[in-house]
Write a structure and sequence with these properties.
alpha/beta; 7 helices
Amino acid sequence: MGLVQLYVIARHGESTLNFENRVNGDPNVPVHLTEKGRDEARLLGEQLAHVPLQLCVHTEFSRTRETAEIALAGRDVPLEEDAELGDIRIGELEGKTLDEYRTWKHTHSRSDAFPGGESLDDAARRYAGAFEHLLERPETAILVVTHEIPLRYAINAADGSDDLDGPAHLLANATPYLFDADALRRAIAQIRRLS
């Protein structure tokens, strides 16, 4: 039996903008964790304490790096940034409320780009490419700290759903979701098929 590759994918801890129900797709806007988010990151670390992680990949958004650093405090796990796993680039909707974002999203198709940003389909293809790069890595146990949408797409696509946004939709912050290489391959193929 071959060695199992393990990919632990988690959303970052609660951020200040999560708390304010605002959206952020620009990594240059500093968005930090709330106290609750830091507690969630510590709990993630406790849940992964006995997993022999060899690498942690986070996005260029400060909230994912902060989550990773708290979760892995005291452990010798290298951190690496991957911008391709970053949140959806929402352009002119930057800083708007979640309701404004959802209203725009529900009146447009997945192939329509956010004004000054990218489309959901473009982001999905970007995530599929990033997941593909994870599969090419030599490490056998990788923690990925990312955002709700790439995680949601991975879960639903790996499960074979024809909807990247469901059935899994609202995902808890800093909760580990486990994928082996086959599950990640299924996710990549389905994301590509649906986008």
